[in-house]
Amino acid sequence: MAIVKMKRLRVIALAEERDELLARLLHVGCVEVTEPEGALSDPEWMALLHRDTSALGDVKASANAVNAALEALRKYAPETKKKLLDKLFVTRKAIKESEFLNGKALETALNSAAEINQRTQRISQIYTQGNRISAQRAALVPWASLDLPLDTKSTEHAQISFHTCPAGVDLAEVRAALLQAAPSAELFEASVDKELHYLLLVCHRDEAETVAETVKPWSFSTVSFKEFGGTAAENITRIDAELAENAKEREHVAAEITAMGGVRQDLQICADRLVAELAKQAAREKLLTNGTIVFLEGWITEPGLPKAEAEMMNYACAWETAEPLEEEEPPVLLENPHWMNPINMVTEMYSMPAYRGIDPNPLIFFTFLFFFGFMFADVAYGIIIWALCFYITRKYHPKYTMGYMFRLGQYMGIATAICGVFTGGFFGDVIPKFAEMMLGIPPTELPRWLQIFNNGIVVNPINSPMNALILAIVIGVVHLLFGQCIHIYMGFRDGTSVDALLDVVPWWAFFASIGLVVAGLPWWTILIGCLILVLTQGHTKRGILGKLMGGVASLYDVTSWLSDILSYSRLMALMLATSVIASVMNTLGTLGGLSVMGIIMFIVVFIIGHVFNVGVNVIGTFVHAARLHYLEFFGKFYEEGGAPFQPLSYKTKYVDIIEEEN
């Protein structure tokens, strides 16, 4: 239960064995390849070696192609009869490592992806063509009533033109103006919509300029039909036929993609394989080479060293490992028992600990679950949370952060149910409410054990909110004292025991002086505690004056301590919020009494209300449980800022790999 020890790894290998070596390091999954910064800044190194090249761009292109093909299958060949959870989570398939790394299967899947993507591109082209044709049709529809070819030419004496003008224009006014300025001109209206009049204007050529000037005040615009011949109606009929053919072709190509739904699983395996290949190519770009040899530098976990050495023994390479230098910050990997691993997600959401810090997971595992359970505190809610997370974990086996979340959710559900036993929560107060409002049984006539449960074996947040608040504050004080004890332990571990004791013990004396005053001692007893702080809290400063000023300034930290302690009142606040919302829903549900409509009303309100209560409060409770650890608890000892260990390893989405030894 600690931060895994890391060693610096340096390897020199033959360039011709580079890819095989990286593949085996990918297999063992305990080596993080890093930039060889020292070598890159050394002119002698760079005179001999240069950065290796990789096919990273090509692999990225292939990965994008496969993902695009999978997206096309999701659209055109969706998996049938999938439940909601099946759509949200991937059901992984277990395959052997040799099958996963099969080169021929990879090539076949890439060819299938290319075929699917060609068809999706064709569908995109068909859509574009259809949109263009539809736009042409929309432009012709207003002219459909004209029995005049759109390509009609003006004659030697007559000029024919098509126009539009705003729908608000009074055409009678336009015609009157034309009659006065150009008696030979005629204006015909083809149609009108909310925006425009669609007009045919015929006039004598000699009056063309006069007509143009006459209609200018009404914002006439000329329309050209250069690409059309025949009447608008004839063109619309032709376009409708083209659109029908367009839709038919689109359906045909889509059906071809649908028929390729059988390659979905192969594409999923290929997608995961390409993720591994991307990791390998990214590592290759960090290598140095002269064409004959390659130089690799990185970090390796101490437990994984024997396994990696066994793999490297199979290649013509030399390697060395070394302890990290004092100025180096190795990556951080947290190692805990399997059952405790889910708490990793809580730590990672904040920040990884420094490599030379302390693993917080064993320290926060039980307190985090207790805080969550304390705030939710309902037997039924706990069972629901546990059952849902247990089902998802067992059926879909989610990995990484998602896997941690649902495994942690099982523990949170158990903690919620246990705390609910001691606070009398079972869907809030549904038992006494239902008994009294629906069955007419007063709470005092329920069985004795049920009365004890309903009243809260330890505390009932609705009946005794002040008791819940006091309990929350006491829990907070204990939690903060625990954090300070860890600070002392780290001081003894790092050889700074005196500083650690001076950071903590004087504060205990100060708060003890406050307790003594509350117990009846004179008020000036607090001054003794203040004096202890002034004399000790500047111990890290230089000079007597600096130490004294640091001690005086520490008195201001009293407000910070009070703020930290009061922060734990949120334990009571969230517990009360959950209980009150549940109680309100139970009250509303039982208003209908014991009748058919009353029972229906109770069931509807009960389901909707409690689903809402769980959905809303599970997020808030998780966030506040994390906050109490991040801000209050971690502030007492935590050294953050570590970089997570990112080894060259398989990270799959669709399959679980059964690893095989060579």
From TrEMBL:
**Where do the TM regions start and end?**
363-388, 408-428, 468-490, 510-535, 571-593, 599-623
Q: Is the keyword Cell division in the record?
A: no
Query: What are the subcellular locations of this protein?
Result: Membrane
Q: Which GO terms describe its molecular function?
A: ATPase binding; proton-transporting ATPase activity, rotational mechanism
Q: What is its main location?
A: membrane
Going by the entry's taxonomy, the superkingdom of the source organism is recorded as: Bacteria
GO annotations under biological process? vacuolar acidification
Return the InterPro entries for the record. Answer: V-ATPase_116kDa_su
What keywords would UniProt list here? Ion transport, Membrane, Transmembrane, Transmembrane helix, Transport
Pfam families cross-referenced by the UniProt entry: V_ATPase_I (PF01496)
This protein's GO cellular component annotations are: proton-transporting V-type ATPase, V0 domain; vacuolar proton-transporting V-type ATPase complex
Its membrane topology, per UniProt?
Multi-pass membrane protein
Instruction: Give the UniProt family note.
Output: Belongs to the V-ATPase 116 kDa subunit family.
Instruction: Supply the PANTHER family for this chain.
Output: V-TYPE PROTON ATPASE SUBUNIT A, VACUOLAR PROTON ATPASES
Its protein name is: V-type ATP synthase subunit I
Q: Whose protein is this, by species?
A: Lawsonibacter faecis
